[in-house]
Amino acid sequence: xxxxxxxxxxxxxxxxxxxxxxxxxxxxxxxxxxxxxxxxxxxxxxxxxxxxxxxxxxxxxxxxxxxxxxxxxxxxxxxxxxxxxxxxxxxxxxxxxxxxxxxxxxxxxxxxxxxxxxxxxxxxxxxxxxxxxxxxxxxxxx
Length: 142
Fold this sequence. Notes:
Layout: H1 7-26, H2 30-51, H3 53-59, H4 61-81, H5 87-97, H6 126-139
């Protein structure tokens, strides 16, 4: 997803991802499906970072609005793509964006106002993660 991605490229890439991830899920290749989804997420993050909407909101409001619109469309797609893996979280995002979890590219209308939302995932303290991993290793050696 190169910098300045036009909407039609975004739609084409999202459609391609629906097709490939759907096929992988049907074949039981869940890890491959998730790998493709998270490669898309990494590219979306690069797109957001390269567009710098926190700067363009003061220097180029149209560019900022285009970037944020594209990012909302990416989130809409990810909510559905991740639904088979994270149904409860995906359902929340679909609700916030008034989307169907139907397996197809979803569209959030320009100007849509988000309702009150909440944090989707709490950040885990790394020390807690390490402690849990150690406890698991002791409980399930080998």
